[in-house]
Design a protein that fits this description.
Length: 250
């Protein structure tokens, strides 16, 4: 997401955006915490739109940059190998800083440098934002794939494991697969398999790539093993065995 697309449909995100808007007018250092994919970097860019962005683990580059800029965004502060040296460099060079970190991050020097600290809750606590993000990502997918196919939300459960990161990936893949052609699907499987083949058991080892989606789709559509065995032209015991063989994927 760019600096103007932070979603504020939920009360927690609206409050976070309100805090960020206030910080745009103040010359204070701030720390934005939260899980991956919650919008920390987006809000940091909103507060300091012209600042250079440096990953905290790029320690030498960070120290060098702090000597030549007036403001900076430091992401993933918890990954810095020496917080004290970073804090000292910020103070010596009088640099305005907005940093991001994971929620659980703590350090004895943090309070010394950051006047304002606020946390962005995960998307599982901001479900109103999820709805708007899905719409936004659907529009991005339609533009990217040049598709007019209506996004099918049937059986679509948002993946919030990595917040907006996992949700966007899920929407993109879902959108792509909705109108994928047979030859494109076969190309995907071929590219997946090409570097994995090599043993004498490969046919058996990779048969689940075909059987599992066929069984899952069939059970979803026909609702029972009896109907599915009939549609697939399989003996019911054969279908049961295939389900048992693939139980780790079903």
């Amino acid at each position: 997401m760019d600096a103007t697309s932070f979603i504020t449909a939920s009360e927690p995100s609206a409050q976070a955006f309100k805090t960020a808007t206030l910080l745009k007018t103040l010359s204070v250092n701030s720390l934005i915490s939260g899980e991956v994919g919650v919008g920390k970097k987006t809000l940091a860019r909103y507060i300091l739109p012209d600042a250079i962005i440096i990953e905290a683990s790029d320690f030498d580059e960070l120290l060098s940059t702090l000597e030549s800029v007036n403001e900076i965004i430091i992401i993933n502060l918890e990954n810095s190998p020496n917080i004290k040296r970073v804090v000292d460099a910020i103070n010596v060079n009088s640099v305005r800083v907005v940093a991001t970190s994971k929620s659980s991050f703590s350090n004895e020097y943090i309070d010394e440098i950051f006047s304002v600290k606020f946390d962005i809750p995960p998307l599982r606590d901001r479900l109103e934002d999820v709805e708007e993000l899905v719409v936004m990502f659907i529009n991005e997918a339609s533009s990217l794939f040049c598709s007019n196919t209506k996004f099918n939300t049937k059986n679509f459960t948002p993946d919030l494991s990595q917040n907006s990161n996992s949700l966007k990936r899920q929407v993109m893949i879902h959108s792509l697969l909705q109108d994928i052609k047979d030859v494109e699907l076969m190309d995907i499987v071929e590219n997946y398999l090409v570097d994995k083949l090599g043993s004498q058991s490969d046919y058996r080892n990779f048969l689940h790539l075909y059987e599992v989606p066929l069984i899952k789709a069939g059970l979803s559509r026909f609702k029972s093993q009896l109907q599915l065995s009939d549609k697939l032209g399989l003996n019911r015991n054969t279908l049961r065995k295939k389900i048992a063989d693939n139980k780790e994927y079903l």
